[in-house]
Amino acid sequence: MNSQSLITISIVSHGNANTIGALLESLQKYETALKRFHIILTDNLQNDLPDFDSSPWGSLKTIRNKTQLGFAQNHNNAFTLSQSKWFAILNPDLIFDHPIFDQLLRRLQDHPNAILAPQVVDENGYVQDSFRPIPNPLELIHRRLPGYAFKPFQPDHEGLIRPGWMAGMFWLMDSDIYRRLSGMDIRYRLYFEDVDFCTRARLSGIEVLGDTSVNIRHDARRSSRRKFIYLMLHTQSALRFFASPVYRQARKMFR
Questions:
Q1: Theoretical Cys-Cys bridge with 91: which of 51, 52, 169, 212, CB 3.0 to 4.6 Å?
Q2: Which residues contact 191 (CB under 8 A, 6 or more apart)?
Q3: What is the tens place of the pLDDT at every residue in 76-114?
Q4: Domain containing residue 49
Q5: Number of domain units in the chain
Q6: Does pTM top 0.90 for this prediction?
């Protein structure tokens, strides 16, 4: 198989053995040319994931962490094992309902200097707020007030959305882009890694694009609203981002 067609998929598990099994099953059901996919699973709990069947894929490797690592560090570690043209990051609780990758790769032929994501929907088909403007402190507070409802971005004539950033639940890009950006910033823990990554990409002249012609289903979880520890981590990451030179540069460039 042409090395230019190979795709490495990085998936991190935090006790997600069942959902990862369903994700891989749906990927196998709807996607073609399965040997082009090189799956890297990271078991952040060391021994939670079973040994999945590797035979359908080009390869399947499981990293078993002795100590828990953050979202950014886990995907950065997976990237060091990739030798594919394309690099994808997927949440463990996604489900494919139709083919996606061929369409996304066609988009990347027209927009090679881009980070690309499909539109994310819930189990009822409602669009989720995975495409967002660059946040500011007031906007984060507003999102938590009663009555808040997000307004989806409107796609352009190509069916593309150009948001400030895209939630890191499904990204696809040329591996060289991830390499040029030195991966995600490991100083963020669980939140704002994706905000920072997309913002740094845009500051570097890389497009951040959402493709509304394809959907991926996601079982949304709002842990930061249910558990105090996650709310604290979210707040710490937000403060780090708003104090960063990346945010200051973005405010000047993207007014």
A1: 169
A2: 224, 233, 234, 237, 238
A3: 999 999 999 999 999 999 999 999 999 999 999 999 999
A4: 3-253
A5: 1
A6: yes
